[in-house]
């Protein structure tokens, strides 16, 4: 892992087409801006981990489509 120190207004380049800029620093929070080509996906890590965990839970689930349909019908009646 590369560790850098940057100040507000400074940037880091990754390759030729990704730029990460420090926009604002307030207390423990840092606002960053990312310029990257549209085909490069950018997602917060905590969201990625959450979706990954949900996918793992879904793979381990023993519930069937019929079970889900029955649950939905019960909810619809109430």
TrEMBL record:
It is found in: Cytoplasm. GO terms for biological process: bacterial-type flagellum organization; mRNA catabolic process; negative regulation of translational initiation; regulation of bacterial-type flagellum assembly; regulation of carbohydrate metabolic process. One of its GO terms (cellular component) is cytosol. Residues 51-78 form a coiled coil. InterPro entries: CsrA, CsrA_sf. Its main location: cytoplasm. Keywords: Bacterial flagellum biogenesis, Coiled coil, Cytoplasm, Repressor, RNA-binding, Translation regulation. One of its GO terms (molecular function) is mRNA 5'-UTR binding. A translational regulator that binds mRNA to regulate translation initiation and/or mRNA stability. Usually binds in the 5'-UTR at or near the Shine-Dalgarno sequence preventing ribosome-binding, thus repressing translation. Its main target seems to be the major flagellin gene, while its function is anatagonized by FliW. Homodimer; the beta-strands of each monomer intercalate to form a hydrophobic core, while the alpha-helices form wings that extend away from the core. Belongs to the CsrA/RsmA family. This is Translational regulator CsrA. It comes from Paenibacillus radicis. The gene is csrA.
